[in-house]
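mind reviewing these tokens:
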Amino acid sequence: MQSKALFRSWFVIGAIVLSASTLPLEQKLRDADHKKIGKKIAAYYEAKAEKKGIQAAFLKVSQSIDKAQKKLKQLPILACVEDWERALWYAQQTTYSGRPKTGRVVLAKLDSYGDKIKTAYHLPSKYSSKKGPYPLVLVIPDAGEEADSHLEGQWIDAALLNEAILVTADMPSDTSSWEKFFIDKESGVWSVMKAFGVAKLHFAIDMNKVFLAGSGKGFVAAAATAASFPQLFAGVIGRGEIPQMDATNFRNLPTLLLSPAQAAKDFEAEVRRLGYDNCTLKAEGGPGDVAAFIDETVRNSYPEEITFSPYCDHSRATQWVVVDGFEVDTSKGLEDQPRLDAKVDRSSNTVTIDAKDISKVIVYLNDSLVDMERPVKFLINGTSHEELLPRNKRMMLDYAFNSGDWGRIFTASLEREVPARPTSGE
């Protein structure tokens, strides 16, 4: 069905007056409500993909939201972040069809809008999109390893294979490109993201439990992808003789390193020095350790603090801030690159941003981050601004459609030019 195919492109790389202490984190609606709203959202997204009947479809979503609002009485429905994450999952669930092969490693070329993406994958033996979503592990084998042989030889653990989806990335033959991010030619990051995109198209994945796993040289691509898109992943796994990588963008990215390599020890030490304290290092370990890590780790979609240095000019997004107007100069050291440090304090309803060599920021908010019933104070490079930002249902839905991420929702945004940073003595 052409309309269904168009709709599925939505998620390919391409979420009483409340007091400050009231955090609407748990689900407030019944699952039946999530499913009803999810179906309306799916129809709206299909209309957007077809560019036909968009307003009528949105009106039906809006009416469905208003109907559910009556069940919550005074609690604003757009403040219920986890309910919307669930409803968006049900919208995505409607796009899955067919019966993929399960319980064994499959070497295939999966369709991605006319392109064929080569991959090896393993689905749980009892996999069903109706039983999803499932954790996803994007696996990057070491240089010279065949994808299917790598899965069959290095990922044998019953708990892991029964619970998670494993998908490999088809990497470029030139291993020097594995740490690069180009979109007009082969590169490691782009290859991993293509594998991620095709996995989202074909399999019922949990967007809050997507992991990158690199073995040996493959860890370079895993870490580079995580540094480029830190908002997308729950964690990063390194196995074997992994090379060294920078840890700056890993504040909210837990790592599991099953490696005796000195580079693994250096990475763990750097994470501790930066104050992140989210790296687990084991000189020896296997897929059983990975299974435990995946079971206990969930993406931190709305962290209180963000540290981000754009990995390249295409790397713009963090968990709730998008940066623009910067240039990454690879001839310079890390200390001379653009950098963003952002914090949110819900008790004072304050967002504080320090931006170096970045000219514009877009801040995305929801009621997990701030109290949307009150004005939000923005302190950007020392310049203060206060604004009451109304929740916007259309903005929330369109953000998920445009970002391809049904695991995070935002109900308001603010775009600001970044003022100059104060010089010493000011």
About this structure: The CA atoms of residues 14 and 403 lie 7 Å apart.
